[in-house]
Every structure is written in C-alpha cells, then in structure tokens.
Automatic annotation (TrEMBL):
Protein name as it appears in the record: Parkin co-regulated protein
Annotated Pfam families: ParcG (PF10274)
Organism annotation: Paramecium primaurelia
Top-level taxon: Eukaryota
GO MF terms, alphabetically ordered: Hsp70 protein binding; Hsp90 protein binding
Residue span of region Disordered: 1-20
C-alpha cells in the first residue's frame, strides 16, 4: 500500500509534457515580443512639431537639358547647304553660293527654321541670318511652304530655352510680315504654336529697382510674346483674335 501511494504522489507532482506543435507556435508568434521601449528613455514633454515638407517643383518652366541634333547641322556638315561664313572685315557675314531667290524654298526654308534650335556657332549664326535673308527675298514662295514650317517652330518653342524662344518669336513676326495672306494662312496652326506662349506670357521677373538690360536687345520674353500676338492679330484677318483668345484667355485685343 505504501509503495502504491508513493507512486501516486509522483504521478500527481509530475508536470505535464508540452505538445511540440504548441511549443513551435509560441516560437513563431513574435508579435508580442519586442513590444517594450528597449531601454529607451521616456519623457512627458510634448513632442516638437516637425517642419512641413516642401512641395517639389514641377519644373514646367525649365529648359530641356538636351536638344536633339537638327537637320541644319547634318546638312551643313555634309556640305549640302549653299551658305558659308565670311570672316573678312570686322563683322561676320554670310555668303551664298547662289542667289537666295534661285533656291528651292520647299527644301531649304524648313531646314533653316530647324536650325533656329542650334545653340553653337557657326550653326546658330548661319541659321538665324540665313533664315532672315530667305524671308526677305522669298516673296510669293513662302506661302506654299508655310505648312512645313509649323513643326520646326513648334519644336523650337518647346525647348523652353530663353535664347531660342526669343529668336523664334522674332522670326514668326518676320514670317507674318514677309508676304500677303501668310498671317491668315497661319491661323489654323495657332493650336500648335500658341500653348507655349500662353505659359510664358505673364511670366515676368521681379527685379525691384534694378535695370533689366534685356529690354535694350528686345529679349524680354513676356514683352516679345505680347508683340508677336499683336502682330498675328493685325495680319491674321477676322478670325485671328477669336483663335488667339481661345488659346490665350488673358490676351486683350490691340485692335478694339
């Protein structure tokens, strides 16, 4: 009897064995672990408010970092353009290998408008001055070439480069005044060339009491856009103002 009672006590005092599945689940369940501060100090003082993060700039007015190679540079390097630089004298000039009136305007005038995107010499010098002389002596040849000039003008304005945009706007004014009916023929293409002007029309630089020397060279972009729009309205016929107003709501007519 005594021996049986001792065995019963041993069985009652013996702790039950843990099942292996439950033990593994406790090891895998670590959601309740590492819930403390880990020895970090705590304080009752209110937390300092963090400074709000600055909204990043959209960069909508930034110029394109790289400008793709133009057809003007390609043709000039191959020697296919009838133009060269004359360095004789104090001022550089351009020399034509044949008279500009004898050139095929359907081929060469769009190429020279492509060259308005160039930023390096002699390509920039040749493209700007060559385009100027072609517009002066083109007369009736320019009107038929007008649809081919829209894409080069659009690409030049889309670079958002200040110098390129100023040169292109001056050439647009020269183009409209170079012949009859050109201003009216340009009206259907306002939707392609005016959106960039709408962006920069009211973008002015606040310089306080300083002097803006860009006005001397007519390189103030906002003023140049206003002059270009007024030139388009004066030479674009009856529908010019309606189409300009549709694309640039802030524009006010100079005719009324």
């Amino acid at each position: 009897m005594l021996q049986q009672q001792q065995t019963n006590k041993r069985i009652k005092g013996h702790s039950p064995q843990r099942s292996p599945g439950k033990f593994c689940s406790n090891l895998l369940n670590i959601s309740n672990k590492f819930a403390g501060t880990g020895g970090m100090c705590s304080s009752l003082a209110p937390k300092k408010s963090q400074a709000p993060q600055k909204v990043p700039k959209s960069g909508i007015f930034q110029a394109l970092p790289m400008i793709e190679q133009t057809l003007f540079k390609k043709y000039y390097d191959r020697g296919d353009l009838p133009i060269a630089v004359n360095f004789s004298g104090a001022v550089r000039k351009i020399v034509w290998k044949c008279e500009p009136e004898c050139l095929d305007y359907h081929l060469y005038l769009p190429i020279f408008f492509e060259g308005l995107r160039e930023v390096e010499d002699p390509y920039k010098f040749l493209a700007v001055n060559g385009c100027e002389e072609l517009l002066q002596k083109g007369e009736t040849k320019i009107l038929s070439v007008l649809p081919q000039l829209i894409i080069p003008i659009k690409k030049a304005l889309a670079t958002k480069n200040h110098d390129i945009m100023c040169i292109t706007l001056k050439k647009i004014q020269k183009l409209v005044k170079s012949g009859q009916m050109i201003g009216e023929a340009l009206v259907p293409y306002y939707r392609q060339i005016l959106p960039v002007m709408n962006m920069y029309k009211n973008k002015r630089l606040n310089i306080g009491d300083k002097i803006d020397y860009s006005q001397r060279k007519n390189e103030n972009l906002s003023d140049l856009i206003q002059e270009t729009l007024e030139t388009l309205e004066k030479n674009g016929g009856e529908d010019a103002y309606i189409n300009i107003k549709y694309m640039i709501p802030t524009y006010e007519s100079c005719m009324f």
